[in-house]
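Example 9 (inverse folding). The structure is encoded as follows.
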């Protein structure tokens, strides 16, 4: 009987030690995850501050975050061929201080989504490569008689294009001294 009790105590001690060890591991993981989350938040805040310098000082953090998300969502289109493969087509709109416009027709609707621009604006570099410079949002006036809400805040100003579309540029890929939502960018020179 005594050896049975002794064996049970050893097993219970081993089980207790395993439970205690597991608890320490979980606490350590939670602490590490918390530290990682704090670091990520700090990096995100630093990134927002850096982006605010690129986008302008008069924007809210929410607007900067939305612009950042738009930039992240469209990063793959720095490859011009990827944009073409994904259905963006040349609409033969080439504007000085803007660039070459490529539209994705199935995105043309009454809904504004900052991470899904209807138009990508490129500039042809001296070497002939197409460089993504801006995102453009377009909403048919026939579907939305009033300008869409757009980005958070009141810094974005929609323009009417040829009486048919509400349009809004967001210069997330090429710094614009005239402002992130300005329709034109003096840094863009057509080649």
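The amino acid assigned to each position is listed next.
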């Amino acid at each position: 009987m005594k050896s049975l009790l002794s064996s049970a105590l050893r097993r219970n001690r081993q089980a207790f030690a395993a439970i205690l060890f597991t608890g320490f591991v979980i606490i350590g993981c939670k602490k590490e995850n918390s530290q990682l989350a704090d670091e990520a938040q700090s990096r995100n805040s630093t990134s927002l501050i850096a982006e605010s310098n690129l986008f302008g000082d008069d924007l809210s953090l929410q607007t900067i975050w939305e612009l950042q998300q738009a930039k992240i969502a469209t990063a793959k289109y720095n490859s011009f061929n990827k944009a073409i493969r994904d259905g963006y087509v040349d609409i033969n709109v080439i504007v000085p201080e803007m660039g070459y416009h490529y539209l994705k027709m199935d995105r043309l609707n009454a809904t504004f989504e900052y991470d899904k621009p209807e138009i990508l604006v490129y500039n042809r570099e001296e070497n002939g490569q197409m460089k993504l410079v801006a995102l453009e949002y377009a909403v048919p006036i026939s579907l939305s008689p009033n300008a869409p809400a757009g980005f958070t805040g009141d810094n974005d100003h929609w323009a009417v294009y040829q009486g048919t579309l509400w349009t809004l540029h967001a210069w997330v890929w090429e710094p614009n001294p005239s402002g992130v939502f300005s329709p034109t960018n003096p840094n863009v020179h057509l080649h």
